[in-house]
Amino acid sequence: MSAPSSAAAPAATSVPSGPVLDVRDLSVVFLQYESGLRRRRLEVISGIDLTVDAGELVAVVGSSGSGKSLLAHAVLGVLPRNAVVSGQILYRGEPLVEARLRCLRGREISLVPQTVASLDPVARVGSQVVRSAELAGAADPGATARGALRGLGLPESTDRLYPHELSGGMARRVLTATATVGRPRLVLADEPTPGLHPLVVAETLAGLRAMADEGAAVVLITHDLLGALDVADRVAVFYAGTTVEVAPVSRFAGTGAGLRHPYSRALWAALPGHGFTPLVGAQPPPTALPPGCLFAPRCPQRSPDCERARPESRLIDGALVRCIHA
Amino acid sequence: MPDSPGPESAGIPASGRIGLQGLGLAFRYRSSGPLVVHDVDIRVSQGEILGLRGPSGCGKTTLGRLLAGFLIPERGSITVDGAPLPSRGVSPVQLVLQHPELAVNPRWRLGRILDEGGAPDPELLDELSISAGWLDRYPNELSGGELQRIAVARALLARPRFVVADEISAMLDSITQAQLWHVLVNRARAGHFGVLAISHDDALLGVVADRCLEAFPDGTVSTPTRALTGTA
Fold first, then answer.
1. What pLDDT is recorded for position B227?
2. Is A195 in Cβ contact with B171 (below 8 Å)?
3. What mean pLDDT comes out for the span B220-232?
4. Could you give the CA distance from residue A68 to residue A45 in angstroms, rounded to a whole number?
5. Checking phi first, is residue A15 left (phi over 0); if not, alpha (psi -120 to 50) or beta?
6. Cβ–Cβ of A63/B173 closer than 8 Å?
7. Cα separation, A159 vs A174, whole angstroms
8. Alpha-carbon Rg of chain B, whole angstroms?
9. By C-alpha distance, which of A180, A182, A197, A67 is closest to A113?
10. Between A6 and B139, residue with greater pLDDT
C-alpha cells in the first residue's frame, strides 16, 4: 500500500503496490562437512512466509533457534557461503538478487544492529553517522547526519563522544541514526533491546514505530512478545525455522483464544501475567526435524494426520496459519 | 512435598542459622570508586524464592556475585547455614548467569559440562526437557534457550543450598522461561534450596518470588516486602 501522499517516503522511481517485503516459502539449508567428504544438510529454515507493507511494523517472535535472525541475514544477503537458499524474497515486487542488494543495502534497506559493538570503538559517533549518510548517498552527509541525531533528541555534544561514553539509551539512538540517515523503505531490527532498562526498551521500540509511521516497512525481530505488542501491527510467530502464524496484535488478548496456532497460544499462556504455563519438550534441532508438523511432538492437539506431512500455510480470515486444525 | 518452608528438621530455630545471609556487605570495584554495594543486609531462607529488582546499575549483579563467592566483600560477612562460604570445592551457592554461552567452556561437550555439576540425574534432565542427543554436542551447536537449560541443570546437579539466578530468562522466549522457573521453584519449594531471583521483570517476580527486595542507585537495598502483586 503506497499512499499517494508519500512525502515521507524516499524519492520513488516507481510506486509499485503490494508489500515492500514479501518472503515466500523461504528455506535455508546449511551444507556441512562432517568427517572426510561426508556432507550433512542442516535445514535451518524451512518454510518462512512473511509480508511487510509500507507504514507497517511486523514483529517476528519465537525462541532462539527459530530462524528469526537468519531471516534478517537472508534478506540482507549476508548468510554464510555454505547456505543454500530456496523460495523467494521479493523487495517491492522484484527478487532481491545480489547485484540489486548491493545498491539497496544501507540505503533503502537498513539494519538496526543489536549492540554498540557494531560501532567503531575508536571513532567519534558523529563521524560514524556521517559515514553512514555518505554510504547512503546523501547529498550533504554532514547535514543529514546532524539532522538525524538532532531529530532523535541527541544534543550536539554527542557528536564528539566515543561509543564507550554513551549511555544505553544514547547508544540505541545513535544506532538508530546510522540505520535511518538513508531514509530506508525497509528497516530490519534484530533484537534491538537486549537486556536494556525498560525505559530504554520503550524508547527504542517507539523509535521503530515512528519509522513505520513515516512510511517505512519495519521488521522487529525479538523474543519479547509483550514489548512487541505495544508497537507492532502484526506478529509473525516462528517455530523451528517456520512461520506458524502471522496474527494481528489484537488477537494476543485475554486467554489467547483468538490465536489460531497452538504454539502461539502456548507462547501467550507462558507469559507471567497470563498463566505462566510451561510446555513440555524443546524445539527440534535442524538435525532431527520431525517428518510432519514441526510442532506436533509438543502439541496438545496432535492427531495422526499432523505427523504425516508438513502443513501448508493457509490464509484464514486474512491471516496466515500453518496448522491443519486451525 | 511440604507447601511451606517451615522449621527445619535439624532442630535449629527457623530464625537462626539456616539460610544464606549477608550482613553489612560493602563492595567497590576500585579503591577510590563508589560503593556499588553499600551496607546491605540480605537473607535468603531455604525453600524461599527472594526477588531482587531495580534498574540497571544498582549493584544487583554485584550483590549476587558476592553471595555466590565470586567477589570478596570489602566489609561484611556471608554465611551459608551459619558457616562462611568455603574457599575451595563445589560452592553451596550456585550462580546462573544471563548469558549461558559465557558460562560454559566452548571446547567441552555438553555432557562434560554437566558432569562438572555432579552425578547425573535423569529425572532433572527430563524436567528441563534436555534431550540425550544434546550431550555429545558442543555449546555453539545449541540455541541460547537450550544452553540455559544446561546451565540450570549444572547448577542443580551440584546440589546447592542456594541458587543465585541473575536475569536467567531475560533472553528467552516465554515458554522456555516458564519451563526453567517451574523447575527452579518446584525444587526449591520442595525444601532443597533457596533462590535469589534477580530480574528487572516485575511480572516474572510477581509469579515466582515469595518476597522482594529493591536495589537503589546508591547501592543500598530495601527491606523485603511481600510478594509483588501479580501484574497482568
1. 62
2. yes
3. 69
4. 9
5. beta
6. yes
7. 9
8. 17
9. A180
10. B139
A271 chain-B contacts, CB cut-off 8 A: 174, 203
**Chain centre to alpha carbon of residue A166:** 25
What is the reported pLDDT for B14? 46
CA separation (Å) from A99 to A88, A91, A138, A186, B51? 16, 13, 21, 17, 53
DSSP for A201-222?
HHHHHHHHHHHHHTT-EEEEE-
Domains for chain A: give ranges and CATH numbers: 21-108+184-312 (3.40.50.300)
Q: What are phi and psi of B134, to 5 degrees?
A: -75, -25
Is there a contact between A161 and A124 (Cβ–Cβ < 8 Å)? yes
Q: Residue A196: is its pLDDT beyond 80?
A: no
Fold for domain B47-72+86-226? Rossmann fold (3.40.50)
Sign of CA dihedral A98, A102, A104, A109: positive
Residue A155 neighbours by CB distance under 10 Å: 9
Residue B13 has pLDDT above 70, yes or no: no
- Inter-residue contact B59 to B52 (CB < 8 Å): no
Domain ranges of chain B: 47-72+86-226
Q: Give CA separation, B142 vs A25, B41, B130, in Å.
A: 25, 39, 11
What is the identity of the amino acid at A59?
A
The answer to whether residues B181 and B189 touch, using CB atoms and an 8 Å cutoff, is: no
Chain B residues close to A62, C-beta within 8 Å: 173
Phi, psi of A127 (to 5 degrees): -70, -30
- The predicted structure's pLDDT at residue B99: 87
The 10s digit of each residue's pLDDT in B113-133 is: 999 999 989 999 999 999 888
**Mean pLDDT for chain B overall:** 88
Residue found under cell 559493538: A117
Report the run of H or E that residue B175 belongs to, with start and end.
helix B174-189
Q: Which residue of A has its CA nearest to B202?
A: A272
Query: What is the pLDDT of chain A when averaged over all its residues?
Result: 89
Angle at A201 between CA A196 and CA A202, to 5 degrees: 155
All three cell numbers of A215: 512510511
Other C-beta atoms closer than 10 Å to the C-beta of A282 total 24
- Rounded CA-CA distance A113/A72 in Å is 11
Of all residues in chain A, the one with the smallest CA distance to B141 is A285
Q: 0.90 cut: is pTM over it? A: no
Q: Give residue-wise pLDDT tens across range A100-145.
A: 999 999 899 999 887 777 889 999 999 999 999 998 888 999 999 9
Cβ separation A273–B230 shorter than 8 A: yes
Q: Do B133 and A280 touch (CB under 8 A)?
A: no
